Amino acid sequence: MLGQKLLKNLLLMLIAVPVGNINAEIDLTGEWAPRYHEDLPERIPGPSIGEFHGIPINEAARIRGESWDSSILSVPEHQCKPHPADYATRGPSHMRIWKTLDRASQQVTAIRLHISWSASERTIWMDGREHPPDYGAHSWHGFSTGIWEGDQLTVTTTHLKQGWLRRNGLPRSEKAILREHFIRHGNYLTHISIIEDDVFLTEPFIRSQNWVLEPFQQIGPYLCEIAVEVDRPQGIVPHYLFDQNPFLNEYATRHGIPIEAAMGGAETMYPGFIE
């Protein structure tokens, strides 16, 4: 009788112990070091002025790009400006990922990201909350919600401040929607970003980048001090007027490609454009 009672209690204890979900989401947490084998010239040295080919921009984006003057980055208001969520993964992007858990249920309520450049931090809400209305506050990192699609984390981000597609003047509007997929293969993490922007793009703009797990990585503090680097009259914003940028055609000339190809647009993404 005592043995039966003991067996019954053991069975009850086993039932009460939570068992891992066979469909559990893959763990993305850890320290991740970027790999730059994709798009290295764009991501590290940076694109040239007038290097717009392969990007599905419209005429409005092209005009903004043609007016861009790189010295705007020396203006104090721009010196410590963080990278927005859609660009933070493109630059120096040593990354830390961790989870926020509900203490009572132990369910994941959010996934957090910290990226080294400008100490960017994002929250991806995993608790099913809705996105704010269109008039809600916009920020550099926007408002992100995530769902698991198998072992792939899919994230939708809205409410981004106006940013850029490339750091050569091509803009991305505050109305853009950023969709992301985080996919882990062992110690490697692949990130795919898709930007939909009816203001400056005619088609979605898709990019990918990769990281490798680096358990010994230590991300240091990001120190940025604003200083007057160029003495300018107050109120001057560096730019070029329409069709007056003297450097606009240098990239196409240097690489021997047609100027109309360098000016971008969805058609320049496809092989048929050169025919």
Can you walk me through this structure?
The termini are far apart. The chain is globular and about 90 Å long. A hairpin with a 6-residue loop joins strand 7 and strand 8 (171-172). The longest helix is centred in the first third of the chain and has 15 residues, at 2-16. The protein is built from 7 helices and 11 strands. With 275 residues, the protein is of the alpha+beta class. It has a 9-stranded mixed beta barrel with strand order 1-2-3-4-5-6-9-10-11. It has a two-stranded antiparallel ribbon with strand order 7-8.
Per the principal axes of the C-alpha atoms, what is the gross shape? globular
Q: Return residue spans where pLDDT drops below 50 for at least 5 consecutive residues.
A: none
The class by helix and strand makeup works out as alpha+beta
- Largest sheet: number of strands, sense, barrel closure: 9 strands, mixed, barrel
Number of helices: 7
Percent of residues in β-strands: 25-35%
Oligomeric state of shown chains: single chain
What is the tally of beta strands?
11
Query: Termini separation (Å)?
Result: 88 Å
Mean pLDDT: 91
Identify the strand order in the major beta sheet.
1-2-3-4-5-6-9-10-11
Radius of gyration based on Cα positions: 24 Å
Task: Tell me the series of helices and strands, N- to C-terminal.
Answer: HEHHHHEEEEEEEEEEHH
Assign a percent range to the helix content: 10-25%
